[in-house]
Write a structure and sequence with these properties.
The protein has helices spanning 143-150, 168-171, 194-202, 241-252, 262-271, 310-319, 321-333; strands spanning 28-32, 39-43, 56-60, 62-64, 68-73, 79-87, 93-99, 108-112, 118-127, 133-137, 179-182, 206-212, 235-239, 257-260, 280-284, 299-303, 344-347. The chain has 348 residues and is α/β, with parallel strands linked by helices.
Length: 348
């Protein structure tokens, strides 16, 4: 058995959530106590019961952009599907794409809006490492503004084959999303409502925010048998000075840093690589895997993750391998809903 094989598990297909619950905080919450090994079944709406007045709940305030693209090869009319990843200072787009046959440098794709009407073209300028293309839009404009005309919600493939419905524009976005830049939602945060966050603050815990723009690197499968050989793609993140100061002070007075989501963990741990939390702004390629010593995170709220993924490796590294294996078995036995629109766990 390879090192990666240890992170495999079987999940009945019907447990993959295809739609969110009508009320976000009604999602189930499996509370995992690392000290006692106890597993407790509750709901996200009960989260305030597990927080202390001195704690800091840390959220990732990134906003999902309509990054999924649909169009046709201008010359042949063949279907093309793509994903916007980023834009450079010249306005060129970095995109991944799928079509029959091979795209050639200089070829154009006509992008369509959500009603299948042609809008503008992308010229494929250069193929880059990893299969992405540098592409030039035929119209000028701020990339996020242009995406509002042609982009779709970038649902993962295991949710309805990636096909969005109108409601996904709201439900595949946290209620605290602010800074646009992600091609996938920080899904643990999808369960939180404004009312629940207000109740947490009313009881004395602080709400703090960091930013990590989720890219493909978080979700790319691990293809090497040894974890040490996997290379994470870089993602941009930020922890500002006032937040870093507040989190350090909270810890000094006995409070815990409770990260909402693995993306928040990566920001905090990237900012604490030298030991103590410091302001951080830039790209991170941190891959949290055994053996790893956590320096900034004391508790973690997270969704249930795909087998053989970097996210599952992170969670098992944080929660303890045997205990998180048992938690996943318990969740499957109790018919929890899995993945992006699914239920959550709280590791204390």
């Amino acid at each position: 058995m390879s090192e990666l094989d240890q992170y495999d598990y079987e999940l009945p297909e019907e447990l993959i959530a295809q739609h969110p619950l009508p009320t976000r905080s009604d999602a189930r919450l499996l509370v995992v106590d690392r000290r006692s090994g106890a597993l407790t079944h509750t709901h996200v709406r009960d989260l305030p019961e597990f927080l202390r007045p001195a704690d800091s709940l840390v959220l990732n305030d990134t906003r999902v952009i309509p990054a999924r693209l649909v169009g046709r090869r201008t010359a042949t009319g063949g279907r093309w599907r793509g994903l916007f990843l980023a834009a450079d200072e010249r306005g060129d787009w970095l995109v991944l794409g799928k079509t029959r046959g091979k795209l050639q440098s200089g070829e154009t794709v006509t992008l369509e809006d959500r009603d299948s009407r042609p809008q503008f073209t992308l010229t494929m300028a250069m193929k880059l490492e990893g299969g992405a293309w540098a592409a030039r839009p035929s119209v000028a404009g701020e990339p996020f503004t242009l995406l509002e005309h042609v982009g779709r919600t970038p649902l993962p493939h295991y949710i309805r084959g990636g096909e969005m419905v109108d409601r996904d524009q709201e439900t595949y976005q946290t209620v605290f999303a602010e800074k646009p830049g992600s091609v996938a939602a920080p899904t643990a945060g999808l369960h939180l409502t404004a009312e629940l966050l207000a109740e947490i603050e009313r009881r004395g815990a602080a709400i703090r925010r960091v930013t990590l723009h989720v890219g493909l690197g978080t979700f790319r499968p691990i293809e090497s048998a040894r974890l040490a050989e996997h290379r994470m793609h870089r993602e941009w993140c930020s922890l500002d000075e006032p937040t870093a100061d507040a989190l350090r002070e909270a810890r000094q007075t006995g409070g815990r840093i409770v990260a909402v989501g693995t993306t928040t963990v990566r920001v905090l741990e990237s900012a604490a690589r030298d030991g103590a939390l410091q302001p951080f702004r830039g790209e991170t390629d941190l891959f949290i895997r055994p053996p790893y010593t956590f320096r900034a995170v004391d508790a973690l709220m997270t969704n249930f993750h795909l087998p053989r993924s970097t996210l599952l490796v992170l969670v098992r590294t944080f929660g303890g391998d045997d205990l998180i294996r048992r938690a996943y078995e318990e969740a499957i036995r109790h018919r929890y809903r899995f993945y992006s629109y699914g239920d959550a766990m709280l590791i204390l």
